[in-house]
Specification:
mainly alpha, about 0% strand, about 450 residues, single chain
């Protein structure tokens, strides 16, 4: 593939690692752990392990694609080239809709900030942190990556301190081997909790969006994706044990990590944790999304799905109009007064739907691009590339059923299907133009 832009080879392993960790570690652990406790009690640490199993298959598929055909707008280009133009566009527009999650991280930040400084206007704080991350990313990936590395170091240190201090306060470790306490409402609720907590492990795969801006992407992208996922799962198991083991479950159901941290830390350490662990977790994820979110839309604009003027870049190489669009997507739920919990559940449900599509692209890698597969530094056996995407599809279809049937309002489910239908209609109408444009590229 020809060189796509002037930022080629900008991001090395550590920059990619910080972006990936910052994307993964965020609202999922600091917000959803309490929700998971209310569903499955002492099963939360094991639910995080099951959540790893739920997302490991699609992540493995995307890691193999990232190694074989690294490019800017990675997952969009994988789907486009291996599953077809219309499918690529459909995936991309669901991805755009799923970025209502930007509001989750901004609102989560504001709620925790208000705990430290009561009286703050939550809506204004959420808007302010959204603006800060937006402006940082307008200055380019280098600025965003430096900001992310600083945030991630403080973030991981704070969460490790939470686990390290908290494990000594856990009352009974035997609670985690008692099936009745691990699955108090049955295996179905345990699985439902895992699908919700899965959101806390999502994000590492999006580093593939930066393939065109990375050094040695065939090696670094799969290495970063898989190592981050395993490390974060281990960290979350520790967080889950502390969250459920220090205080009675009735006190921590639906509560944040900050609530439990008050029991573990001294007042001074508590404030350090909330700032360095909770607030930075949310801010790091927000910043990481802004770092990659425009990549697919940029490539789609070049392909002719939209007016190419939307993809114009500023002097830092950032497609600022597209980035502004994502900023607006995140801003609307905040201005509308939507609750943090519901935005999280809504974004997770949409994410389950679009999240599986890039993994399915692996099914056609060897047949449609055998040279890329042969040259990849990380590759799966051909038979695995046929089986794993189908297994991942089965797992995600079940997750989508749980999310849409059990957690969302009917009006939002209908809105989702209407939106998806309009996307399909537009894709069918616009594809002939896209085919003509791509022949000229």
């Amino acid at each position: 593939m020809a060189k796509q832009n002037s930022t080629k080879d900008l991001l090395g392993y550590w920059s990619l690692l910080s972006i990936s960790l910052g994307q993964i570690v965020g609202a999922g652990v600091v917000v959803l752990t309490g929700i998971g406790i209310s569903i499955t009690g002492y099963g939360v640490p094991w639910a995080f392990v099951l959540a790893l199993g739920i997302i490991f298959l699609p992540t493995l598929c995307i890691a193999a694609l990232g190694a074989a055909i690294p490019s800017t707008g990675g997952m969009y280009t994988y789907v486009r080239d291996l599953l077809g133009n219309k499918t690529g566009f459909f995936y991309l527009m669901l991805l755009v809709a799923g970025q209502v999650m930007l509001a989750t991280y901004a609102l989560g930040f504001s709620e925790y900030a208000a705990e430290l400084l009561p009286g703050l206007n939550n809506q204004m704080i959420a808007i302010a942190v959204l603006v800060i991350c937006f402006l940082a990313n307008l200055r380019g990936l280098q600025t965003a990556a430096r900001m992310q590395l600083f945030i991630v170091v403080l973030l991981i240190t704070s969460l490790l301190a939470f686990v390290g201090y908290g494990l000594f306060r856990v009352d009974k470790f035997s609670n985690y081997t008692d099936v009745k306490k691990v699955m108090p409402a049955g295996i179905g609720s345990f699985i439902s909790a895992a699908y919700i907590l899965r959101l806390g492990l999502v994000g590492g795969e999006f580093v593939s969006e930066l393939g065109g801006e990375s050094k040695n992407p065939s090696r670094n992208i799969p290495l970063v994706m898989l190592s981050c996922l395993i490390f974060v799962t281990i960290l979350y198991v520790g967080v889950g044990i502390v969250a459920t083991g220090v205080l009675p479950l009735a006190l921590v159901e639906g509560k944040s990590l900050a609530f439990i941290a008050k029991e573990i830390f001294s007042p001074a350490m508590y404030y350090v944790f909330v700032v360095g662990g909770v607030l930075l977790a949310l801010m790091s994820t927000l910043n990481a999304i802004f770092a990659w979110c425009t990549k697919g839309l940029y490539m789609a604009s070049r392909d002719g799905w939209f007016d190419q003027r939307l993809a114009v870049k500023n002097r830092h190489g950032v497609p600022y109009i597209l980035l502004s669009g994502f900023f607006i997507v995140g801003l609307i739920p905040i201005l509308a007064g939507t609750t943090l919990a519901y935005i999280t559940i809504l974004g997770n449900a949409v994410g389950i739907v679009f999240g599986i599509i890039p993994a399915l692209a692996l099914y056609n890698l060897n047949s449609k691009n055998p040279q890329a597969y042969a040259n990849a530094k990380f590759k799966l056996p051909v038979v695995a590339m046929k089986i794993l995407p189908l297994l991942a599809l089965a797992v995600y279809v079940y997750g989508a059923y749980l999310s849409f049937s059990g957690f969302l309002k009917l009006s939002h489910v209908i809105t989702f299907f209407v939106y998806a239908g309009l996307v399909v209609v537009y894709a069918v109408w616009r594809e002939p133009h896209v085919v003509a444009v791509r022949k000229q590229i």
